[in-house]
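Re: the request from the purification team.
They wanted to know what the chain is likely to look like in 3D before they choose a buffer screen. I agreed to run a prediction and write the result into the notebook, where they can find it.
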Amino acid sequence: MNNATYLQNNSCVHFYYTDCPKPSALTYAYVSTTEAAITWTGGIAGETNWTIIYGPDGFNPETGGITITTTATNAIIPNLTQLTTYDIYIYSDCSPTIQSLPLASTFTTLPYC
């Protein structure tokens, strides 16, 4: 780490530290025909705010989807359509200008019986 010769001769070395780690351990409490309940674990930075973006499978979270903000490590994703696959992205909001990389997942709603 502190070897000047190594650092000078290996310019592709990149040290990276994030001040805003992404959440982890996403769990689905349930998935029904019209909603899903999720929980997750915050990162090691002690963050207390999260942004959830979800939408149909394959959507781009930078340009679309539905956004929910929360201060809890759980949420209910409402107004879903039966037998539809959704992508979900959860971001830690560490400050007004710093957001983590996303914790991403996919789930499919159940059919009406």
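For the purification team: The chain has one helix and eight strands.
Please add any questions underneath this entry.
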